[in-house]
Amino acid sequence: VGDFDKIWREHCEDEETLCEYAVAMKNLADNHWAKTCEGEGRIEWCCRLLQASGKIRLLDVGSCFNPFLKFEEFLTVGIDIVPAVESVYKCDFLNLQLQQPLQLAQDAIDAFLKQLKNPIDSLPGELFHVVVFSLLLSYFPSPYQRWICCKKAHELLVLNGLLLIITPDSSHQNRHAMMMKSWKIAIESLGFKRFKYSKFSHMHLMAFRKISLKTTSDLVSRNYPGMLYIPQDFNSIEDEEYSNPSCYVRSDIEDEQLAYGFTELPDAPYDSDSGESQTSSIPFYELEDPILLLS
């Protein structure tokens, strides 16, 4: 067990490395993903979900280069620990302070967002219709930090607002089915309900709706934070240095995932929440209808 808060502080202070990472990510998005991910774009997936009769207030956490800014239907606030472009605000979301919700009309709230100061250290609650975590959660070194981020997203969303989560995974759909089930349970414990899930070639994409203003009171003792794990959480330096690939032994978690995957066979990829099978060439969707955010 490491001191993940200390690790995160030191990481945020290493601005030279972070700047190099931000530039590399922008180049990757501009020069690689745009050409090789046709039909499987994560930004396009988010946009297809969202329909509204008014401007959608969208918070893009870990924004890097502000990909949602070009869409007129969004009033976008992009934040990052080290922005790659000037339109993104500098903000450490993990340590963002939350304030009481604004008691203002919608146009006044829009005006407030357009006048935010850089860097952002605090934001009012219930401010956004959509919060996007695109390739964000796996960036953190511990499940508890991922859970804190999801909890903050819940507090920043209006009732019925949407949390969109994209996380990388190049494995086949059932390889990490147990992990995705675990994430669903943990995030729903915060007052969300998952209504859409897709698996692209290199990522999972999930949409959660905020269905309650409050979370349950007994979250930590039920170990919900620990359920937001990723496979890398179970690696150690010793494992990497001394492991013999020819004598690899599966972990208990991997055994569970393997067993869970076999429950899906011999049918095509299947989601246990909906009970519907899908062919492997088509991304799985729980709900096909676009979501009307505003009345």
UniProtKB/TrEMBL annotation:
<dbReference type="InterPro" id="IPR021867">
    <property type="entry name" value="Bmt2/SAMTOR"/>
</dbReference>
<keyword id="KW-0489">Methyltransferase</keyword>
<dbReference type="Pfam" id="PF11968">
    <property type="entry name" value="Bmt2"/>
</dbReference>
<keyword id="KW-0949">S-adenosyl-L-methionine</keyword>
<dbReference type="GO" id="GO:0032259">
    <property type="term" value="P:methylation"/>
</dbReference>
<protein>
    <recommendedName>
        <fullName>Methyltransferase BTM2</fullName>
    </recommendedName>
</protein>
<dbReference type="GO" id="GO:0008168">
    <property type="term" value="F:methyltransferase activity"/>
</dbReference>
<dbReference type="InterPro" id="IPR029063">
    <property type="entry name" value="SAM-dependent_MTases_sf"/>
</dbReference>
<keyword id="KW-0808">Transferase</keyword>
<dbReference type="GO" id="GO:1904262">
    <property type="term" value="P:negative regulation of TORC1 signaling"/>
</dbReference>
